[in-house]
Amino acid sequence: xxxxxxxxxxxxxxxxxxxxxxxxxRETLGLPLERYEMTGYHFMDKFPxxxxxxxWPLEMVAQSCFGQDEWPTSILEPTANIxxxxxNAKAVESAVQEMQAKGQDFIHGAxxxxxxxxxxxxxxxxxxxxxxxxxxxxxxxxx
Length: 143
Prior knowledge:
two-stranded antiparallel sheet
């Protein structure tokens, strides 16, 4: 028997700073997180599914972000990556400007990757590499 994964059922960051992390996702990114009062767990259900899951070597992440094989010691080393897909490349640029106005530092602003995806990346308080992205092939009617 082989396991047949249908879709990503859930993704949660693991953090030692739950208030800072919940604030980023709720107030800054506008996700409608609820708070389970008994435990303080912040969550949202029925969020649209993922189109990609991967195991990304840190060396490749460093190359993608900085053009070098080593992750800079001055920046929190990421423990996971989540791509937040936006409507188009202009929306990525606008999201960066909005987040920067709210005080968010970015590893890099909006740029076109060699494979045709527009990305801008920053690190969350718990070490998740968050990308605002636009991958045109995900918006094709046949995708």
